[in-house]
Amino acid sequence: MKPIQIGLLGLGTVGKGTYDVLLRNQAEIQRRTGRPIQITMVADLDVERARSMVEPGCQVVADARQIIANPDIDVVIELIGGYGIARTLVLEAMAAGKHVVTANKALLAVHGAEILSAAQHKGVMLGFEAAVAGGIPIIKSLREGLTANKIHWIAGIINGTTNFILTQMREKGLSFEIALKEAQALGYAEADPSFDIQGVDAAHKCSIMSAISFGIPMPFAHAYIEGIDQLQSEDIAFAEQLGYRIKLLGISKKTDQGIELRVHPSLVSEKTLIANVEGAMNAVMVNADAVGTTLYYGKGAGGEPTASAVIADVVDMARLMSSHVDARVPYLGFQSAEMVDTPILSINDVVTCYYLRLGVADQAGVLASVTGVLADHEISIDAMLQQPAAVGQDRTELIVLTHSAKESVMNQAIAKMEELPTVLVPVIRIRKEDLN
């Protein structure tokens, strides 16, 4: 049978991993697909470098459009990244009738509607397993493995850089700034880590999972995003004293009022599996009506783990190329006519639990005034921790864990607490997720 010919755009870490894994496991992959899969063309601006990294029979070009124009290429793998030229090339490849595989979560989250429409118009397949959580097959699990279920919520550690930083802060007591520098020195963080530490990367990925879980248009524009760059090591230590760990979670939850879509630091019980996901690893929890709660864990980045997901998409395409368009799995798991534009809730309408840290005067009556404000707003207390004042200091730290409350109500309560003369600095607030 005629081999499936692949054109690879970009020979960076993931591109090289994809080329190497496909070459190394070619025989095994052919046993699964029934036909050979070969990368016959590669586009990379550094042509000489790229030629030194591939077999002699692979054609290397500087212009990606030469791949798109080649009628023998069946599938284009886009591993360039970003919103600019990658978007143009993906759309041009689809217009030329090529199936496309991409690891570009930002492109899908921001321009997903346009790209999915183009793919549907041309009847081509679009694979993006590698766009979320690297080598973890979470897209396939949500889109196919859990198709019998109503999904209630998803919660994931889906950015390895931030998870590594938080692990270093907890285990070594490092400040955020020092932990970030260590992550950069080890190659876990980019020179400009803004998308990671500010939560944008996780929001891209969570938006994709949310669209597949609930059958909604790509919702990234409505996501609430809060990063870890303001976290302090004291809060990580206090959380641990109370039996919790702080993780940057991407959360999407279906409620009667709409869908929550939020990324922010969260306290999670140290007894949960996801709290014990350390270093640069990723994990996603999914709660659904029939199966209950499932956990997906593994490497969320890196050349070969991500290549595993890229090649899995190509294998799926190889199996389905001769099938009718209607027989293929829908791009987002739901038939396009059945997608529902469900409202995305404002963070002010979200109901969750909270960790509050108050720097207060070390004097009588402080505790009563703080708890009085919470009682006035009908916010009940789950646990409290009071640190003794340091020698020579007239300020102490009061830690409060609350039961569930609406964000807008908690905002009002915090504003009232900060008006108290005994509350000396702005209140630190971190959300707490039970994940039950």
Describe the SSE topology:
Blueprint: E1 4-9, H1 13-24, H2 26-33, E2 37-43, H3 47-51, E3 59-61, H4 64-69, E4 75-78, H5 85-95, E5 99-102, H6 105-122, E6 126-127, H7 138-145, E7 151-157, H8 160-172, H9 176-185, H10 194-197, H11 200-214, E8 224-225, H12 233-241, E9 244-254, E10 259-269, E11 281-288, E12 292-299, H13 303-320, E13 351-361, H14 366-376, E14 381-386, E15 395-402, E16 405-406, H15 407-419, E17 428-432
Structural overview:
- The protein is an alpha/beta fold.
- Helices cover 37% and strands 24% of the residues.
- The chain has 15 helices and 17 strands.
- The strands form 2 sheets. Strands 7, 8, 9, 10, 11, 12, 13, 14, 15, 16 and 17 form an 11-stranded mixed sheet that branches. Strands 3-2-1-4-5-6 form a 6-stranded parallel sheet, sandwiched between helices.
- Helix 5 packs parallel to helix 6.
- The mean pLDDT is 96.
